[in-house]
Amino acid sequence: MPSEAVLITGASVGIGRELARLFAADGCALILVSRDQQKLEEAAEESRKLGASRVQVLPADLSDTGAAERVFAEATAGGATVEILVNNAGFGSAGPFWRADVEQQLDMIEVNVAALAHLTRLFLPPMIKRGHGRIMNVASVAGFVAGPLMATYYATKAFVISFSLALNDECRGTGVTVTAVCPGPTMTEFHIRAKMANSKLFESSAMTAAEVARIAYRGTMKGKPLVVTGWKNRLMVLGVSLSPRVLAARVAGKMNRGR
After folding, report:
1. Taking a C-beta distance cutoff of 8 angstroms, is the pair 11, 4 a contact?
2. Hey, what long-range contacts does 233-241 have (CB within 8 A, 24 or more apart)?
3. Which of 23, 72, 144, 153 is catalytic?
4. Are the C-beta atoms of 138 and 229 separated by less than 8 Å?
5. What does the buried/exposed string (b/e) look like for 41-72 if buried means 16 or more CB atoms within 10 Å of the residue's CB?
6. Of 3, 49, 122, 170, which sits most exposed with the smallest number of CB within 10 A?
7. Domain spans, the chain
8. 116-159: per-residue pLDDT in tens?
9. Taking the CB of residue 169, how many other CB atoms lie within 10 A of it?
10. Is the dihedral of CA 195, 199, 203, 207 positive or negative?
11. How far apart are the two ends of the chain, measured CA to CA in Å?
12. CA distances from residue 138 to 9, 143, 180, 216, 245 in whole angstroms, order as listed
């Protein structure tokens, strides 16, 4: 694996940064993507010290038109191959949809859905042609339920789960697997940016980014189609599946409200 690269989006902080550490410790070549170049350079230097065979830094804002094509072109320049694609970049925001900034909501769909789908479409065919590869799409337990006060975010993660499970089935027999990773509340910069630090959701059972990354890493390398991190989150998903959708949405809305 060290001769083939792992590309990680959202690699400068949180779960993405922790995944970079894990793959670096395996001696993998890394391609790290984030819009924050300074933090990206810090992650790259750390990855080199941890044992990464090679680290390439690709600053990119995936909400920009054409960003996915640019990332693909630079990552595969000179015939380089990407063995593992980690679509981790994403963000959310809290509050009633009708009061939300429309550009922010559209950017969220662009990053969480469109860029993820586009990067997958670009990197998947070469993997299938080679007969091996792994794709990790970071979704969320939020994708199993409608989420009042975070309506767009929850909807984007529902897409990621459905999309990933469908692709994994399409890829049967190709040597390529697609894994949907579904963390619950995780203590990263995400909850601060989304203004969720005081919500009941994060008070209840937040995991660390390192814990989530380890579970995601193991599940992806085993080729599991769906990975829900932590027994509390698995129990929550089970409860949601047994509840009427309208009731589940109402409960989610209560959890998304502040104290």
Report:
1. no
2. 233/141, 233/182, 233/183, 233/184, 233/205, 236/141, 236/184, 237/141, 237/144, 237/182, 240/144, 240/145, 241/144
3. 153
4. no
5. bebbeebeebebbebbbbebebbeeebbeebb
6. 49
7. 5-256
8. 999 999 999 999 999 999 999 999 999 999 999 999 999 999 99
9. 10
10. negative
11. 47
12. 10, 11, 6, 9, 23
Mutual angle of helices 116-130 and 151-170, in 10-degree steps: 10
Check residue 203 and give its pLDDT: 55
Q: Among this protein's residues, is 153 annotated catalytic?
A: yes
Of 3.40.50.720, 3.40.50.10610, 3.60.10.10, 3.30.413.10, the CATH number of 5-256 is: 3.40.50.720
Q: What letter represents residue 50's amino acid?
A: L
The pTM (predicted TM-score) of the whole model is 0.90
| Secondary structure class of 222 (helix, strand, coil) | coil
Structure tokens, 185: 């509340």
Hey, what are 249's tokens?
């949405």
- Find out whether 43 and 11 touch, Cβ atoms under 8 Å: yes
For residues 74 and 96, give the distance between their C-alpha atoms in angstroms, rounded to a whole number.
Answer: 39
